[in-house]
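Example record

One chain of 463 residues, shown exactly as stored in the release files.
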Amino acid sequence: MELKDKTDIFKIVSQVVPEKQLIQKSEISEDYGHDEMGTIFHLPDLVVKAQSTEDVSAVMKIANEYKIPAVVRGAGTGLVGGSIAIKGGILIDLSGMNQIKELDADNLTLTVEPGVLLMDIKEYAEKKGFFYPPDPGEKSATIGGNISTNAGGMRAIKYGVTRDYVRALTVVAPSGDIMHLGGKVVKNSSGFDLKDLVIGSEGTLGIVTEATLKLIMKPEYTVSLLVPFENFESAISTVPVILRSGITPTAVEFFENDSVNFWEEFSGKVFPEANHQTYLLLSFDGQSTERVEEDYEKIAELCFENGAEDVYVLDDEIQRNQVWTARGAFLEAIKSSTTEMDEVDVVVPRSKIVEFITFTHKTAQEQNIRIPGFGHVGDGNLHFYICRDDYDDATWKEKLNNVFELLYTEGKKVGGQVSGEHGIGLAKREYLGQSLDDSVISMMRSVKSAVDPHNILNPDKVI
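Predicted structure tokens for this chain:
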């Protein structure tokens, strides 16, 4: 059954969800029409501020019956348009489902609702002596959004990504059925792994309404190294040397002097040991002070042997936090330096990082456009930002399309993938189709069709 008049959506949904949880028409804030990047805008016809799994289930049953498009949203910090209701319909806001429900010390798990912020999970776990390792850059993102995009972050090189820390999920299917996937068990070979299918599916296969996360014990000691180099080639070529040493840093980040300059202008602060061309920022953690010190001292020697200009040990918590806070704010700093921007979140083999960065610099020169960036070079995930500056609409669109085509083509050429952690959403859908085999896209579409035959849940995203 399909609705003939969109005004009927409110009447129908208000039968299963209290009106105080509904926002319609002119009352809908424009914030619901875009994500953090802001390059795509469309408002839904109705916002449902869900308070429970049962709310989401009831709404999806209506959406499925009347074939109403439905999109789920958390904090709206995505960068690819994944949480935007591009076909109108219903937007289900899960930000109010933000309770930490249980810490199970014996099973080392934390059960949370999807609207809990990443920063709150980190604070809660660490106060109890535990540690949730995934560390995406946007700490104000919700855990539901992290799960939907399989977010990675800075600590992926040692600890892995979000998928590696999800034990169980409660998921509402497009039909409205409630599914419980996984459990507190460590091993599971019980049929198809639907939990991992939902993780990273960007809200196209189901809506996560509860998650049980794996925890580890909090490391007792943490130290970072800030290592400047004369050029990015020397910095990047040092990374495989580090990884072959037998020591795995918690994080290996790369950035250039332009990102530092943007941050200084953005924040009004001075970056420690500024005015170097290129930097590696490394972190080490562990339960033993002696072992961590032994590890970072060995890595410091390797950096010097491979052309580092200096090695600054950030063993003071205030100084360490200052540097990592700056690194976490590079995206906002670059964004504030231009009128509009869009992102390339490519991941390439670590052996191809220098080649890809060189190509990006060359592209920026040939296209006469700024493309600053930084990256998680420990795992090959690079973030480059195409800046509009003063270009008019037509020129900007032309240059943006040219740069996307060039960089994604180069990424595929060197054996990379379109997205390392931010997902596909709407913005990268075309480039995903170009980067994967037709048979792979066909199988993805078959899965989507089987799970969501009416194509109502986050339609036209990913594939």
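Notes: The longest strand covers residues 221-229.
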